[in-house]
Amino acid sequence: MKRLLIFQIVTTISLGMASGVFAEEWSEYRGPHGDGKSTESVPATWPATGLKRLWLEETPGGFSSFTVANGKAFTIVSRTIDGAPIAACVALDAKTGKELWAAPTGVAILTAARRGIRAVMAVALPRR
Description:
This protein has one domain (about 1-30, about 55-128). The protein contains one helix and four strands, in the order αββββ. It has one helix at about 1-20, and strands spanning about 65-70, 70-80, 85-95, 100-105. A four-stranded antiparallel beta sheet has the order 1-2-3-4, with no helix packed on it. A hairpin with a 5-residue loop joins β3 (about 85-95) and β4 (about 100-105).
């Protein structure tokens, strides 16, 4: 499941980069209109070798969705701070995958039944 999530965000970023610019921000769960649809065009055929991976980032303990806005990809991961599992919001550069910053958001509750932090990210954007 985690690999699928990573694939989805890398594919989204790859498609955006292929067009040279993101046509719309994906600043909340299920996109800008909340319907899981993008207005961007997708090529009718894919390269036989697949899409070029731009970057890959581990998301330990993360089971949340990504949002992409203002050139950054945001998600929630688990970090160990002072020996305790802490949930942290991380911002990654959408072009390189490099972590730009991280902010703790609270205790990460991880159990056998709950193997990842389930959170929905949103980014406040100016109204158009």
